[in-house]
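Have a close read of the entry that follows and walk me through the local backbone shapes. See right below:
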Amino acid sequence: MIVDLLIPCYMDQVFPETANNVVKIIEKLGCGVNYNVEQTCCGRTAFEEGYQKECKAVGEKLIKEFQNERYIVCPGAYCSGMIKNIYPQMFHNSALHNEYKSVQKNIYEFTDFLVNILNVTDVGARFNGKVVILDSCKAINELTVKDSVRTLLSKVKGLEWIESTDSCCGYSPSFTEKYEAISVDIGKRKILELTQTGANTVISTDYTCLMHLKSIADNEGSSLQFMHIADMLASGW
């Protein structure tokens, strides 16, 4: 099986090592990976800021780049949720109706793809430590991605993992820009909650949440570490 890889723009620019780990894991599981170097962005931030015309232009580009009729794997609910749930508002009954439906049907968040398409629960990872799971709002509310994260972490050798509440980290592009003080305050409360679990590392499927909390934690002098689940699953082998 060959899969197409959609890497979120923020991961491509800031955390390319995580994108490499996604490839490493998928290839270990026997899949070929195709990465279209022309890909850029899903347009979600523009959409949430009210630039829907500009977002649609970016979306048209993405749709045309992923017309191979095969699984599209994305290590982030922020982008895959955009395509699953917001693209219909822009492209239903448009000139790209059939093309957008193809992308919408084929795209999967990374952990969802591993567990529910490849039927994999153990990738052979090892990580000695205590972590707390941070579920992103978009993963839960837009994609119902939750169980797949636990399934994969439960097989990581040496790992102790803890649940946190489903409370939000406080990040959303337009909300954080317009109401920075509130966004930061929510983030501080989430960091306090995560710290009180006794874990030393926070794990999530989404770097949008991790980046927001890490910036606040660093500013507060917190010792918490933040890690994408792909980096965890690529550990120890």
User: Anything to note?
Assistant: The beta strands are 2-5, 32-34, 72-74, 107-109, 126-133, 157-162, 201-204, 225-228. The chain has a mean pLDDT of 95. Residues 2-116 form one domain.
